[in-house]
Design a protein that fits this description.
Elements: H1 16-21, E1 31-44, E2 68-79, E3 82-92, H2 97-100, E4 107-117, E5 124-134, E6 148-160, E7 164-173, E8 181-186, E9 195-201, E10 204-214, E11 222-235, E12 238-241, E13 248-251, E14 254-267, E15 270-281, E16 304-316, E17 319-331, E18 339-356, E19 360-376, E20 384-398, E21 410-420, H3 422-425, E22 439-451
Antiparallel strand pairs: 1-2, 1-22, 2-3, 3-4, 4-5, 5-6, 6-7, 7-10, 8-9, 10-11, 11-14, 12-13, 14-15, 15-16, 16-17, 17-18, 18-19, 19-20, 20-21, 21-22
Length: about 450
């Protein structure tokens, strides 16, 4: 959807006490360690086709996500009081050999950085490299509502006592998109054959800062935490070639910013987090997306993105309840009033869980999604282009990890029924069979795991 292209997730954010335990300390074992996040599944639509995700919003429920996996390798060592950790995370997408018959799986390097602690102060950590830089998530909807950056750069974390944590990072990223990068073939000064010239090369400069206060202390198992967060985005000017005839246009420098806040209340594994985030300009598109349309000045300055999100988990004995939801208002940089790049959307999901003993459980889930574009429905010519999906799901599972909403691994059987209104059906291409039915089934098996996987 406009202005957002969510990436596959790593392991979900743990409680503050668990996060503090993952810091590099004097007790951290040295040597190699291994971690992973992964999910694999297959499903049918009960009509002879494979089951497909039914999300119509940017951040839909995660039950029907495609396969994805990360493999993480760490090496921890000490030099006197200083400790350091090298992190390498490789990711694989859904192009499984058994579903394509081709040896062409795609890999990506999601983390490649070095972090050290204890040079000058045991409370200061520094890192340099390429990393996913993120905070707390909304697990049921598969996204990080406030801080989620992908950059090559460096950063610092400082524990100002037991109650305040300060973080900052700065770096770059660059997408293979004509808005940021364009190569052309040119005649060489000497010799024969064309040479490649970088006509446009303007990486995005990213900066982020975050301050978090813990009422009881960052290692306590219960308390209140409050965070404030900010980002800046900047991109230099450049020249872009429009066609093979050589017509070119000047792209002025562009920029943007993000401001956010989070309030969290937690007690053991139970918690509730509330997020508010507002972004302007390039910040409204996220770090891995570029403007589709621009203002008359050929910048993204008019773009806006407002998000309000909620994530929660409650556990008591054999019962648990997970919730997640968000509301989002987005408009692109174009000054036009009517556009499919201006929208209001949202989703909410609740997952009650009951355990039978320690290793077998049953989860149910109900979710609702709605999106409204600031554009006339072209099929009816009457009213806004909009759609809604109501979904009910059941998921019996087995887990050797024992009770807990976030214990993994899971072996799952998943059934989901998505009820789409006429507007939601019309959001798909006219010849796409996935839009033919008002009720869409999803029946399959799946697994999900995570262990020793970085998330911040």
């Amino acid at each position: 959807m406009a202005g957002a292209q969510p990436l596959p997730p790593s392991a979900p954010s743990p409680s503050p006490a668990v996060a503090a335990a993952r810091e590099i300390t004097g007790d951290t074992p040295t040597g190699f360690s291994f971690g992973s996040y992964g999910r694999v599944g297959v499903a049918s639509d009960l009509r002879g086709r494979t089951g497909r995700p039914s999300a119509i919003v940017a951040f839909g429920p995660r039950l029907d996500l495609p396969p994805y996996a990360e493999i993480q390798f760490n090496y921890d060592a000490r030099f006197g009081r200083a400790r350091w950790r090298a992190v390498t995370t490789l990711a694989m997408n859904e192009n499984l050999f058994h579903f394509t018959g081709r040896f062409d799986g795609t890999f990506a390097v999601r983390n490649l950085y070095l972090e050290e602690t204890g040079v000058g102060s045991d409370n200061l950590s520094l890192w340099v490299g390429s990393r996913m830089y993120r905070g707390d998530d909304v697990y049921l909807l598969n996204f990080w509502p406030m801080d989620n950056l992908n950059m090559v750069g460096g950063g610092a974390r400082y524990n100002a006592g037991n109650h305040v944590v300060l973080q900052a990072a700065v770096g770059m990223n660059r997408l293979e998109d004509p808005y940021q990068l364009q190569t052309i073939s040119v005649a060489p000064r000497d010799g024969f054959g064309p040479q490649t010239a970088f006509l446009l090369d303007r990486p995005r400069v990213l900066g982020a800062a975050k301050a978090t206060w813990y009422s009881v202390g960052r290692t306590a198992r219960e308390g209140l935490k409050l965070s404030v967060y900010g980002e800046f985005h900047a991109m230099s000017s450049g020249v872009r070639q429009l066609n093979e005839a050589g017509a070119r246009v000047e792209l002025p420098g562009d920029g943007g910013w993000v401001l956010g806040a989070q309030a969290g209340l937690y007690r053991g594994s139970s918690f509730v987090n509330v997020f508010v985030r507002y972004a302007q300009g390039l910040g409204a598109y996220g770090d891995l997306d570029v403007p589709v349309t621009l203002a008359s000045a050929r910048t993204s300055a008019r773009a806006q993105d407002l998000r309000v999100a909620l994530s929660g988990n409650w556990e008591r004995g054999a019962f648990a309840l997970m919730v997640g939801g968000y509301f989002r208002y987005f408009r692109d940089a174009d000054a036009g009033v009517f556009s499919r790049d201006a929208l209001v959307e949202g989703a909410i999901a609740a997952r009650p869980i009951v355990w039978f003993g320690n290793y077998v459980g049953l989860a149910g889930e109900v979710s609702y999604q709605r999106i409204v574009y600031n554009a006339i429905d072209p099929a009816t010519g009457n009213g806004a282009l909009a759609g809604s999906v109501l979904r009910f799901a059941a998921m019996p599972f087995v887990t050797p990890g024992g009770r807990g909403s976030y214990t993994r691994p899971h072996l799952q059987i998943i059934y989901a029924a998505s009820l789409r209104d006429g507007g939601a059906q019309r959001l798909y291409a006219p010849d796409d069979p996935f839009g033919f039915n008002s009720v869409e089934h999803f029946l399959g098996v799946g697994t999900e795991w995570w262990f020793n996987s970085s998330y911040l």
